[in-house]
Amino acid sequence: MPSARGARTVGPRRRAEEIIDAAAAVFAERGYHGASTQDVADRLGMRQASLYYYFPSKEAALEQVCLRSVGDFVERAQAIAGGHRGAAEKLAALIQSHLAPVEIRGDYVRCFLRERRFLPRDSARRIGRVARRYEGVLQGVIEAGIEAGELRRDLDPRLTTLALIGMCNAAMEWYGREPDAPVRRIADRFAVLVIDGMRAARGATPFSGSRAKRSGGRAGSRPRRRIGG
Amino acid sequence: MPSARGARTVGPRRRAEEIIDAAAAVFAERGYHGASTQDVADRLGMRQASLYYYFPSKEAALEQVCLRSVGDFVERAQAIAGGHRGAAEKLAALIQSHLAPVEIRGDYVRCFLRERRFLPRDSARRIGRVARRYEGVLQGVIEAGIEAGELRRDLDPRLTTLALIGMCNAAMEWYGREPDAPVRRIADRFAVLVIDGMRAARGATPFSGSRAKRSGGRAGSRPRRRIGG
DNA sequence: TAATTTTTCTATCACCCGATAGACGTTTCT
DNA sequence: AGAAACGTCTATCGGGTGATAGAAAAATTA
User: Tell me, in Å, how far CA of B151 is from C1' of C25?
Assistant: First the structure.
């Protein structure tokens, strides 16, 4: 039975992943700069210096965490976007897909969202590219939906994409603290919320008119009443 | 002419605010733990030790930043919520109000959003109370809107509130990097996006059916179909 | 079992960080 | 002008940090 020194509790390549797991957990909890390599080592029951057998630097560990976090996000999104369903359905599926990892990879995702900016320039750029590609997939679905007449023509695809992603990312923060909010439920509610707002109006008049107002009088947007459908 | 030592460039109480400004900027850029008191001092052209004339600790500086960030958020929200307009209008105004500080207080707000969790327990709790009160104001507007029949009855007020806030908070992150996206425009788009999704449907069919597809009879909450109206 | 490789350990370093103490220049008050 | 308060400085300290070097234990291979 292995113990004390040179112990190997698990398979050969598996140990490295355990260490990344620990790093993700610690970074997510205390923040990259707030966490020390000692914290990571403690969580693994090993010595701080031993970590450097697996990683050349703390930054490299963060990079690994972020890379695994980003993982197959893009691929899954592309798979959904490439399907034959309507834009609304695709978006609902994309929301579900975006939110899903919070359960089993919450630490990774949170770490990515909050600590990615501390990566060295090179890896930051590489990861940034992936993120931008992901945004592009979403935006593509929205643009196609507009083109097809399924979504409102006055949508700003870029802002809508960012709104959607931001909303989901925010959920990563409070997920687990909110009672009665499993991923499925959150995803469903989010989908209804924004997708119904994006749908091409059937009979109703969009809220548009009231927006750019406000310059004249008081702060508020005096809304004109909607004409019932 | 004041210079070198003991110089006072500005009024008596004003200096402290300059220092908080610098702290906010530095904390926002590098993160609380990633930023050193030296960084703050550099930005002010003063010595690191001199900061401690104004603040007993780095944590105290962070607390000040967060307190000022939270500022009059709640009051402004309450003012809007207390008005006599409809829920949709109030929400649009709330979005605008929420987003507004990013222009002149971006550093503060970003610092609050990202670094608040590193505050010592006591101040974290105090600030947490403020944040929760703010959420409550928004949620109250939504609940009132539902009650009044202006907003969809099947909205989850809590999740909707969090979605709204999360969407806006996310914008704080990318604001300034997105071209052609002044606050006003973002606020308008966001308002259209979610508020139209929240409105009590007049003719349109909600999206419910297509969502839960993919579950194949899984645990999830089978979304109940809305009865139109 | 002996040799080799893999993994962990001990020991240590150079550095930076937050914080304190006390001197010194500046401003304000009387 | 003299005293008091204010604001900044220099100097320094204890402690934690990321990282390196090399010994040693465990696992693997021959």
Answer: 66
How many cross-chain Cβ pairs, A to B, lie less than 8 Å apart? 193
How far B16 CA sits from the closest chain A CA (Å)? 26
Question: Are A47 and A82 within 8 A, CB to CB?
Answer: no
Residue A5 CA to residue A7 CA, distance in Å, equals 5
d(CA B43, CA B23): 9
Neighbours of B221 (CB within 10 A): 12
Chain A residue with CA closest to B182: the answer is A159
Q: pLDDT tens track of chain B, all 229 residues?
A: 333 444 444 555 789 999 999 999 999 999 999 999 999 999 999 999 999 999 999 999 999 999 999 989 999 999 999 999 999 999 999 999 999 999 999 999 999 999 999 999 999 999 999 999 999 999 999 999 999 999 988 889 999 999 999 999 999 999 999 998 999 999 999 998 888 766 655 433 334 333 333 333 333 333 333 333 2
Q: Angle at CA B12, nearest 5°, toward B10 and B16? A: 85
Shortest CA–C1' contact from B34: which nucleotide? C17
CA dihedral over B5, B9, B10, B14, signed as positive or negative: negative
**C-alpha span between B197 and A131 (Å, rounded):** 27
Cross-chain residue pair A167–B166, CB shorter than 8 Å: yes
Question: Chain-wide mean pLDDT for chain A?
Answer: 85
Q: Which residues does B29 contact at the CB level (< 8 Å), separation at least 6?
A: B35, B107
B44, closest nucleotide (Cα–C1'): D8
Q: Do B204 and A212 touch (CB under 8 A)?
A: no
Assign A163 a pLDDT band (cuts: 50, 70, 90).
very high
Is the separation of the CB atoms in B68 and B18 below 8 Å?
no
Tokens of residue B162, six digits: 């969090």
| Residue contact A154–B192, C-beta within 8 A | yes
Q: Rounded to 5 degrees, what angle do the CA atoms A99, A105, A110 make? A: 75
Beta bridge partners of A151: A199
Nucleotides of C under 7 A from a protein CB: 6-12, 16-22, 24-28
